[in-house]
Every structure is written in C-alpha cells, then in structure tokens.
Amino acid sequence: MVYINDANFIDIKNSVVCVGNFDGLHKGHQKLIEETIILAKNENLKSLVFSFYPHPRKILNSETIKFIITSEEKRYLLTSLGLDYFIEYPFEKSFSELSPEEFFERFLLKMLNCKILVVGEGYLFGKNKSGNIEILKMLCAKHNVKLIIKSHLNLGYEKISSSNLRKWILSSEFEKAEEAMGRPYFIKEKVVMGKQIGRKLNFPTANIIADEEKLLPNDGIYATRTLYSGKLYKSVTNIGENPTLNGDKRTIETYIFDFDENIYDKEIVVYFYRKLRDEMKFINIEQLKKQILNDVLNAQKYFDEQKFYI
Length: 310
Prior knowledge:
By secondary structure, the chain is of the alpha/beta class. The protein has 10 helices and 14 strands. A 6-stranded parallel β-sheet has the order 1-4-3-2-5-6, sandwiched between helices. The chain has a 6-stranded antiparallel β-barrel with strand order 9-10-13-12-11-14. It has a two-stranded antiparallel ribbon with strand order 7-8. The model has no long low-confidence stretch (mean pLDDT 90).
C-alpha cells in the first residue's frame, strides 16, 4: 500500500475511490473499503481511500479531537487489507471553502481519476457540508462516474458509528466495541523507560506513552493482551496517575504474564478486553502489591472463562 500525506502527489491513474474520515475503521468502514478493493480488482483499477488530516473539526471548530485509532494505527490496519493507496490529504481552512462541485471536479476527477466512487449513505461534502447524496448522484451522472452507496450497519438497536465507539470505549463496553470493529480496541506504541517501580514490586511493566490525540479508556485497571514480536501474551494494564506512589501524570503501564525480555524502544500492541476496577490510592506499598496480585488473578480468571489460552 502506498501512503500519501501531502498535497503534491503524482496523479493517480483510474481509480475506485472511497472517501471519509474512517476513525475506528469499524465494520461499516470495512464494508466500504472491501467493496472498493473488490471493484478495483474486477475493473482493473486502483483501490484508494481518500481521507483528511487533521480532522476537519479540529481546523474549523478548534476542537480537541481524540481518535479511536491514530493516523499511524490506521495505516497499520489498512496495510493488511490489500489497498493500493491511502491518502490523508492535508486539511486546511481553504479546503473547507470548496463547493461540492469544486471538490468533486478538482479532487475526485482531476487528481484521483475516479471512475467508481464508494460512500456511506449519510455522506456529506463541500462547504458547510452542503453536498449530499442527491448532489453526488447528479455529479456522478454528469461526469460518468459510477456511484456505490452502502447503508450503515447496526449493532442491535444502535448504529455502528465512530461516535458510538467512543461512547462504548469510555464506558468500558469493550465487547460491544470489539463486535462493532471486528477486533479489540488497542493502543500501539513503543515501550519507554519508566520509573522502574513495577520491577521493585515484582511486577515489571512495559510503559508506553499514547499519542496525545489517542482516545484512552478512563483511568483504571484492565484485562488486556499484548502483542510483541508476533506473539500474544496475557497482561494487565493500568491507566492513571499511580496515586499510591504520588504520580503526577497519566501513564499506561502493562504487566505481561510469563514475560522477561528487555523491550525498551520496541513496539507493542495492547488489546483491551475488560475493566477490572477503578484506580485506587492504597495506604502503603504492601497493600498495593497485594492488590496487583489480585488484579493478575482476576485477569487470569477472566481469560480462563473466555478460553483465552494465550
């Protein structure tokens, strides 16, 4: 997959284009992208996802956006799908001023050579989101572009959407989020040097610092699994400020079961499955050690019940 994140790229030759932000890459997004790849193969065209960075709301409304998956995590997932191109076009205020017609003709036609366009049923585009599906149908017909519109998916009575995914992750409804995404919620980062306190407690942890734009679960202790060097390990992850140890900043620390390797500066992926408890402040270190052991046992019990043998 070719990744492009600047405005000056060589024109793409004859493509099937899927447009959107795709935060979370949930099953609805996957349906759009899978359709894009199948159509491209069948028609001997290039498959292309066209997205934007930073998020338009960050530029237009000065909002702090917390992403379910970061840009780097999105590339990590898309690479495995067989996509030809992933473009994150630099979003600027001037871009938001383009009319639906200008966006369609300048980008989809001239820059991307779009022959088939794949979108979700609620797709809006152009200045003030003034372009809707009806306008898109008209533009596609005018320029001889085939338009594929896919309906959204539901999980029970709720729509599978990025906003619902955020809600489920923040309320620790990881099973719902996993069902909607087709994979567990995860954090993918390099391990950094911590204060070595976990090692002194006989529970050495892998410490990671998440991208500042990454959506994190609320503070607490979680049953997780950790992927390192192609192998999955059971683990327990703490998100919080370590109040017993007078911590002053939010950290992510993962104790990996049956693991004793030096992995500083190595990349790990931490998958979240269940919240075990809220973060607490203990009277002393001995109480903290006892609780950590209890957390490990509770996580192991959860993994056994779920038949997670690794």
